[in-house]
Amino acid sequence: MKKPIVAITMGDPSGVGPEVIAKALAVPAITSACRPLVMGDAAAMERALAVTGAALTLELTEGLPPHDTSGKIFLRSLSSLAPTDMEYGGPSSEAGDAMFRYIAEAVRLCISGDAAAMVTAPISKASLNRGGHRYPGHTELVADLTGCTDYVMMLAGDRLRVTLVTIHEPLADVPGLITMERVLATIRSTHRGLHTYFRENPRLAVLALNPHCGERGLFGDEERRVIGPAVEMARKEGIDAHGPLSADMLFHFAAKGDYDGVVCMYHDQGLIPLKLLHFDDGVNVTLGLPIIRTSVDHGTAYDLAGTGRASELSMVAAIRMAVGMAEKRALLAQRKPQEKKVECSGCKTRGCTTKSASQRKKTAASKETHPQENQTAGSSSEHDS
User: Fold this and answer.
1) Contacts 24+ apart (CB under 8 A), 332-336
2) Backbone phi, psi, residue 110, to 5°
């Protein structure tokens, strides 16, 4: 299979993005697996090479990288920032506008098919907004550029994968944003994304919002009124979802491998355990987009910028995951139409063999059932203290 082109965005030039890119692209396994093309600023990347000591040369290009990119960083320079625009350790409006352009160009390359995936280094939301681009975060920006409204933020490592019903929202606003429609949409998108790229017919845990699942309404009723009904609807569609489950116990079982993904109600509920297990190698994935986008799971780390000490492990993991997802998508695209499985009537995933209850009855009547369809979904047991 031809090595895929991966568009890598520099992120905030004042942060560690250029440095972790330089260190990651010096890893031979990365250039053996893909053809990286960086979107960024030439001066910022030259500075990063000097700071990290990476034995790479910078190659400016307006085209696409060759098959062999070892020993070089192929960069599409989309800004000419002055040193004062990218001083280490702080946001600037000029850098904010530049990082927007890096992202927009990577999205364009993915949509056109020139790039198989995009990987993003961390941005400064303050810089982005100062530069005139009003987005609460990277995920929402990429979703807007791709015209996508049904997307889910997933943080992933080898032991744990979490998705979020709400993302960058004030904690006080979260209860009002937890609706049955939103929870169900997140469950569906999580199922679809995991099934397509990671594991067929994944087993999902859906967390409660309140301590002890609300303790029968004593601590809140979102579990009974919103989350539980959403889980039941998902199960009727054939999705292997379980919950609501108490967050204080569930992650122990998820980390053991009992679940393929955990649907969380808000940002810190999912990201605290994820970063506890995968601080260095966690990957941010936006599920539901028409393109493949992965990212590091850390921020600009202004305190480390310019030191060369920022770890490249998350960037390496993000690139590897993007390549794996791109290869999976390419293999699916090569299937002949007659070889494709039926489309799930519940989650609308091409290739998913789960079906709605009514469809299962029809299939059974025609004696054409599949083994996956005859499995009885497990009960929603609660791991709680």
Assistant:
1) 332/196
2) -70, -45
Q: What is the pTM of this model?
A: 0.83
Q: What is the DSSP string of 301-347?
A: -TTTTTTS-S--HHHHHHHHHHHHHHHHHHHHHHS-GGGSPPBPTTT
Q: How far is CA 43 from CA 25, 79, 179, in A?
A: 17, 9, 47
Whether the predicted pLDDT of 349 surpasses 70: no
Q: Could you tell me which of 169, 104, 165 has the C-alpha nearest to residue 136? A: 169
pLDDT classification of 166: cutoffs 50, 70, 90: very high
For residues 32 and 118, give the distance between their C-alpha atoms in angstroms, rounded to a whole number: 17
Give the CA distances from residue 352 to residues 49, 242, 367, in Å, rounded to whole numbers and listed in that order: 45, 18, 19
The CATH number assigned to the domain with range 1-148+290-338 reads 3.40.718.10
Residue 276 pLDDT greater than 70, yes or no = yes
Closest CA to 19 of 43, 51, 41: 51
Determine the 3-state secondary structure of 120 from DSSP: strand
**Does residue 314 contact residue 282 with C-beta atoms inside 8 Å?**
yes
User: pLDDT by residue (tens digit) across 101-147?
Assistant: 999 999 999 999 999 999 999 999 999 999 999 998 888 999 999 99
**Better pLDDT: 152 or 372:** 152
Q: Which of 113, 116, 196 is nearest to 152 (CA)?
A: 196
Query: Alpha helix (H) ranges present in 92-214?
Result: 93-112, 125-130, 138-145, 174-177, 180-197
282 closest CA partner among 290, 272, 292, 291: 272
Distance (Å, whole) CA 56 – CA 50: 10
Do the two domains 1-148+290-338 and 150-288+376-385 of this chain adopt the same fold? yes
Domain ranges for the chain, please list them.
1-148+290-338, 150-288+376-385
Q: Which fold has domain 150-288+376-385?
A: Isopropylmalate Dehydrogenase (3.40.718)
Q: Residue 38: beta bridge partners?
A: 8, 75
